[in-house]
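seq/struct pair 1
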Amino acid sequence: MPRDTDFDAFAQAFPGAVLALAGLSRTRGYRASSVALKAQSRAFDLVFTSRRRGEPTICMEVQERGERTVERSALVKVAVYCTQNDTWSSTQLVIVYATEAARRHALSANVAVRGRRSVTITPERVVLSKIRPETLLARGGALLGLLPLVGRGRIEEAAREWYARLVSDRSIPEARREQLRDFFGRFLRRRTRGRLDVEDPVFLEKLKGVQELVARGRAEGSAKGKAEGKAEGKAETLRASIAAVLEARLGRLPRSLRSALAAADDTALERALRAAATASTVDEVSRALGPRSRRPATRNGRARR
């Protein structure tokens, strides 16, 4: 889980991915470090500073199990940091909680005297367990390395598909992909308490099976198309292509979508293939498969103009 040397190292290697995970839109040009504060026994977990002038400084605290005074402590740290650096108007605070329970456990940092506010702090609060893995899969890139930290419940089945997506993402340079694979493995071991390891032969064998399924889908679609004729072959190739793209980008396809693909004609499949290349969810592809509205017909069957 985060708030350890692995998460800190990831933030320093891929600061934009951590800021994107926190829901921040401006993530380019930032670098991360741990900043010690005068008159404070603890440093900020992470401070992100931009190389671009005018961009805000992002101070981040990361909580795994939940420290009751984390927000109050952060209030003091922000005050010290802004005073030292004269950045009162350009500093933003983000607190990353591993779970909703950890967020609820934290005490408010707001201070009021006789009903009147004296000090108020409103950090950006991010809960990792509430972030859907599909969101990271849709965005791709370095965010794929953080997949073991998000979502709820057991991730044993999904982890192989996630890792396969990371391994096959050609938008990431090879050297950077190796770094991400290493971080993914560390986070996965921690999340599963050592039950899953990307270097384990069993994991790698099942991962190979996931990759082979994608390749087989493409090959079978093409072969079947040649055997059954040009028209049917086009439809089968489209179905196989859609399935391969979606499985690589978003993971396993639901049965309902497979049924819809099987029943769709060439026109609908072409729309779905275009949607699959950019869709954030499988629902967007399902909507693309749906029938288009038609003009109402007259009594003789011709469409009205």
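seq/struct pair 2
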Amino acid sequence: MALDVYKDWLGIPENVPRPVDLYSLLRLVKFDDDAEKIRGNYRKLNAHVRKYASGTYQVESQELLNELAKAMLCLTDPERKRDYDESMGRTFDDADNLDNPTIAETLVRWGTVSREQMQEAKDFAERRGLEMRDAVVQMKLVDAEEATKALAAELGFPYVELEQLTPESSVLTKVPQNLARRHTILPLFVDDNMLLVACGQEPSHELEDDLRFRFGVPMRRVIASPASINESVVRYYAELEAAEAVEVDGGGTGTEEKKQQQQQQQQQQQKKKKKKKAVVDPDSAEAKEAVYKEKQIGKILACWSLIVPAMIDHFVLPDRFKFFSIFGFSLSLVFSPVLLYLVWGKFFRRR
């Protein structure tokens, strides 16, 4: 008997028409609008289908995983979901065309932060010239993922957890890795005559034109945190290069040796990741927060560079050892400038 992945793996009865509609595929009530529930069902089904990812049904499982991912991305995208629902006979009132909530409104509605904290975040963002997402992360009100999820709600695009997705290799091969890294993007799928691309920030018109030229279809972005995009770019392009290397080898006598080299390279990459967490975008909230903390440490050390020698001069160093003195300062006149220069070079000089 032929395998029916919908029935055998997902428990969808045979009487449900094929191809299966997106709501049945994700085991949802028809026209369910709860994005968190949609993502939750997707995570559960994704984990279940991945059990079949190795062995006899590896191809079928990967095809079904991609189908589940495309369904989740469609039903968590307000604009695409509305079009899909209308195609299934759903009608909408004009009152349903509501403006997207801001990041502040979303976080307050979720109960993550208070209105007073959001006002402080707005003031903080204005003083430092930051986006609201970066401001709430730097103030440690929420983590980067939660802030990115709120940003997605504000922009009206779906939020994705890239750890749950596997991009199609045919899509990755058309986008060079350096292009993906430079623009902090990860191309995922071509679905419904659109290229779905995970973005950490607003893509430029030049990038959209470039991708349209490469794929022949317009780009549609989904939102993910810059850190998760950078990690995924490193991971999936490394896997793509390894797969291409095996294909080029052609299964000859050197295949085993090639595999060992690839395993060694992957182990080295994993060691590098442990030492250096992930490639961080210099414009990301994490990078800006690290620079801010580094400068704060520099300011503290600069102050102590003046205080410690002065205290030694006045309370420790006897007068007989002061070969020259100005207003009681001797050691300070030599060591303070040197220490200040070292602190400036370490924490403030642009590299």
